[in-house]
Amino acid sequence: MTTIDDQTGTAVTRPAEPTTRTGAHAALTPARRRLALLAIALGGFGIGGSEFVSMGLLPGIADSLLPGLMATDPERGIAHAGVAISAYALGVVVGAPVLALLSVRWSRTSMIVAMAGALAVGTLLSGVMPTFELTVAARFLAGIPHGAYFGVASLLAASLMGPGNQGKGVAFALSGLTVANLAGVPVLTAVGQALGWRAVYLLLTLVFALTVVALLRTVPRETKVEGRRMVDELAALRRLQLWVIIGIAAIGFAGAFAVFSYIADITTRVTGAPAAAVPWVLVAAGLGMTIGNLVGGAGTDRSLEKTLLIGFPLYIASLVGLFLVAHTSLTALIVGFFLVNLTNSVLNPAMQTWLIRVARRSEVLGASLNHAAFNVANALGAALGSAVIAAGFGYQAPMVVSIVLSVLGFVMVSGTLVALRVRARSTLRTLRENELPVTGSIPAVTVDA
Fold first, then answer.
1. Residue 262 and residue 277: Cα distance in Å, rounded?
2. Is the dihedral of CA 337, 343, 346, 348 positive or negative?
3. How far is CA 442 from the centre of its chain?
4. Are the beta carbons of 245 and 358 closer than 8 angstroms?
5. Closest among 285, 345, 333, 339 to 317, alpha carbons compared
6. Are 50 and 135 in contact (CB under 8 A)?
7. Which segments in the chain show pLDDT lower than 70?
8. CA 353, CA 384: separation in Å to the nearest integer?
9. Are strands 2-4 and 11-13 parallel, antiparallel or unpaired?
10. What confidence score (pLDDT) does residue 49 get?
11. How far apart are CA 87 and CA 198, in angstroms?
12. Cα torsion for 309, 313, 319, 322, to the nearest 10°?
């Protein structure tokens, strides 16, 4: 099959695609399809709870595991406890590409069930480790299956929803995470404040166990793709555009995590609200995330480029607005976090879809790397937020960090899209200047005058 390589603009001959997967999805009843999608989303709900509830419970974790440091220097204690958040994020970064490469030997259904089981084990360990160091190690282990789960979930959901709905499929796979932020994280935060943070991780372990059962009973079994090799997946890593997109996600979205990692302390120390207000701020953030994810999925199916070019400036503006109003009132803080998470989540399906398209046949790797990139952003944002707090700049300083990083991300997006347009025009011009009267498998290229 002869095509135009999207990196070099030259005509190349590619091998035929390997054997396709089974067509079991086409025979699903609507009810079974909905249940399968809900089972996939349930795992996302557990992941969202596990990842983000740590941020709301960070003061409790610090008081429990770092009592001496919290007694003498609370700001340093909170900053040090943020290592647990970074450890989870680094687990995602390590696990996503490694498990995606191993997935070539598994079917997607076997892979997602195994990842849900691994999430259950890692979350259980997070809730029972006796020391801070062991808890950090457990959070790292819990993060390893995160990216691979969402990567396979995005592809399964897109397949279940049918052709032309890739963006909506990605959004549905992420919907469990957004609903977790809307309802799960605030409720779990309240539970953690009442019963202790360990009880939260034990509840989440139960969610992952239920996910395993639901996936086994509802998601149609697939056979693994024959003819795929690990080296085929690695081919995607040679594409410059893939690394650029990873860089955009890692830098452009780190700002959101620089702020969200310290949402509890911003609520109590910047706005001056009581700790009981933290779950309500989390509800607003989760509602924004849920709405933004749905808008982003629909927008991506219409135009990935416009979703990015419109969404990023709105995201930056919302971060600026949060910085300006966070200290004024609880109402302003709630509205600010709602808008930040709405605009941020509009961009998520677009970034995931962009990586899947660029990765081509290495679809699981591409989908998983998106979550690795976002968790580089998580680790970077939490670390930079911790650094400016520990340096004595206060709890508003992470908001300044977030604005700078989001602006850098938008510059990278704009530059990349402009470069791709220039290259596309150059490729078409070359084809027109070297047009030959050939027939066969090479399609005709029409160029507007």
1. 14
2. negative
3. 38
4. yes
5. 339
6. no
7. 1-28, 163-167, 169-170, 181, 223-233, 361, 363, 367, 427-449
8. 28
9. antiparallel
10. 87
11. 17
12. -130
Q: For the CA atoms of 109, 112, 118, 123, what is the dihedral angle to 10 degrees?
A: -140
CA–CA distance, 84 with 267 (Å, rounded to integer): 20
Q: Which ranges in 162-303 belong to alpha helices (H)?
A: 166-179, 185-195, 197-218, 230-234, 240-252, 254-260, 263-265, 278-302
Beta bridge partners of 233: none
Beta bridge partners of residue 12, listed in sequence order: 3
Q: What is the biggest distance separating any 2 CA atoms in the chain, rounded to whole angstroms? A: 80
What backbone phi and psi angles, to 5 degrees, belong to 63? Answer: -65, -35
**Which residues fall within 8 angstroms of residue 79, CB to CB, at 6 or more apart?**
386, 387, 389, 390
CA 199/CA 188 separation, integer angstroms: 9
Q: Burial of 52 by CB count in 10 Å (0-12 exposed, 13-18 middle, 19+ buried)?
A: buried
108 in Cβ contact with 223 (< 8 Å): no
DSSP H helices, 326-396, are 330-359, 363-390
* Closest to 355 (Cα-Cα) out of 250, 231, 230, 232: 250
Q: Over the stretch 77-118, which tens digit does the pLDDT of each residue have?
A: 877 887 888 788 888 888 888 887 777 777 888 889 999 999
d(CA 286, CA 51): 13
* Tokens at 51, concatenated: 């990842």
Orientation of helix 278-302 relative to helix 330-359, angle to 10°: 40
pLDDT at position 13 is: 40
Q: Which two tokens stand for residue 54?
A: 């740590």
Cα torsion angle, 67, 70, 76, 77, sign: positive
Secondary structure of the chain: what % helix, strand, coil (to 5)?
80, 0, 20
**Would you state the pLDDT for residue 166?**
62
Neighbouring CB atoms inside 10 A of 88's CB total 27
- Spatial separation of the C-alpha atoms in residues 167 and 176, rounded to whole Å: 15
pLDDT tens-place string over residues 359-404: 776 767 776 777 788 878 877 887 888 888 888 888 888 899 999 9
**pTM higher than the cut 0.90:** no
- Using CA atoms, how far apart are residues 106 and 104, in angstroms rounded to an integer? 6
Enter the tokens of residue 257.
């995590």
Closest CA to 254 of 141, 406, 389: 406
